[in-house]
Amino acid sequence: NYRYLPEDTHLSEKIKRYEIFYLVDGKFLKKGQGGFLPQEGVEYFKVGVFGLSTNEAAYQFFFDPVRVLNPLSEARKTVLHLRRTEKVDVIILLSHLLDEDDIAIAQGVSSVDVIIGGHSHNKVIPNENHQPIVIKRPEEEEGVNTTWLAKSGEFAKYVGQMDLVFDTTNHKMLWNKSQYSLKQIDKRFEEDPEIKSQIESYKDQLTQKYKDIFTDHVADTTMPLVKSGTSESYLGNLAVNAIYERTQELGVQFAINNSEFFSHGFVPGPIRSVDIYNALPLIYDPIKDMSWTIWTFNMDGATLKKAMDLVFMLGRFFDVGGLEIIYNPDQFPEKVVSLKHHGEEILDDRVYKIASSQGIIEALKQVKDELPGLTNIEDTHVELWPVLREYFKGHSPLHSEDSDIKVSGRIRTVQPDLTLLSEHTKTHFMGPESRHMEISMRVQNLGYGGLLPEEVEKAQTDPTELLVYYDATPEDTTDDMDPFNSGTQFMPARLKFWRPKLDSPPPSVKLIEKLLVPSLKKDELTEVIFDWDISSLAPSEFPYTIYLFLKRASGTGFISVPLEAGGKSRKFIKMEESNLENNKAKVFVYLDQKVHPKNNSK
To answer: 414-602: what CATH class?
Structure first.
């Protein structure tokens, strides 16, 4: 895209063509330098590397005026050029695309040998044959019909290593001799002093601008704040509350956000400004010298319901402040059953003023033509992260019983919905030499939205099971799962193995116990406690991860059904839980290398 960059923009001052060095026989050389050309008598093969970045609607504004083209069509054109004009033997794609786009290119573009992805922040766990995702195109010739797809996670936690073997005689990859692995980066690796010095210089620059951002003490949290972009969460409520509270003086009735934008959550303990800054979706704008801001917009009730129907149809989620939502995941296309603002039904013809983060706004702009009731989009020019910092400070210490923030069923399904309240999960050591651990968990039924008073006593879940696992290899996190990261809806089932789930855990995750969860009515809560004998666990300086998985609940409930003569009737039926995004949790436990407890759950 460099060649498309207009001359009269600020970007032309920011973006410069990079002078590329090539690795030739162990030396980094510029094109044209002595020794750059291949030596006679040495058999070389040629590798073509190209990159693609996402063209998602939510990011288009950030690239302006650079044009981001369709990655699939660009991949086809680039591969043809590399094979036919550049005469390369191997093609590697460096991808900053969605998981499903990586899959689409591997399946639909011939001759891409390797895709190394990163945009999703996921990692591809090597299989038992030391391979990443292996995708074959059955219509192509064996040997050239294969693509390897690898990802090495986020935040430099891992380094992926791929050893590829190419047959220069037959000009094809030898996949059976190639290997893939993930290397875990931790304190067993020494810091590079040169890189560390460079990082410190950047920190000094940030300190000059933001003062004590690295050393201040904004707030404390007594529990983990989990990032969950697929269900209501404490962290999601906290963030949307901050937006709502800050904008009520502007006449805002309610606020909307999406905690999927967060890069990570928070561990128990003190919280600094830099922790909040790094967790939030920033997409820093060098022209404005600002990160994401808070915006407001107007929308009538009918358009609001249509927008939310679209979100639920796509299997996505959002956080709300000042709004109560009831929806039916099994209903199509109108999934929203009820919208209320402080107990009053949202009216189709009434216009409401809403606040949100910039990311929500950029997504809405892309579908504005489909939402004619969307008007008056305005930037408050108030950065989001300082607003959240002040909310953290005002509610410190953060604790699980804060009624303003805790998970309470702001968005409910009409079906039963058993929720594992992760912020209430507790562990503590017991007995002589702390050879036992007590684990307590809370489960609450936050479903059954829209029940009439006379129906509450009849609607209840059947008993179900809560499965408790632990990771038997605490020193190796390469195969660890992220139970809060929902698998993409577009991923073919046969390719989902690389993101294991708690309903089919990898071999390193061992079952501890199956616990009974009793029948629960609407809003009813139960505490499940059990004693785990940990005497057989090897002491480790690395934390043991405990995973909790609540099995799908069935039960009885009520739904509205249309009558032939018009109107609706309430029907008592057998039903199953539809929302399965809030049925898992995890907790970290440290065991001292000498005896056992080092500190409590993290």
So the answer is: mainly beta
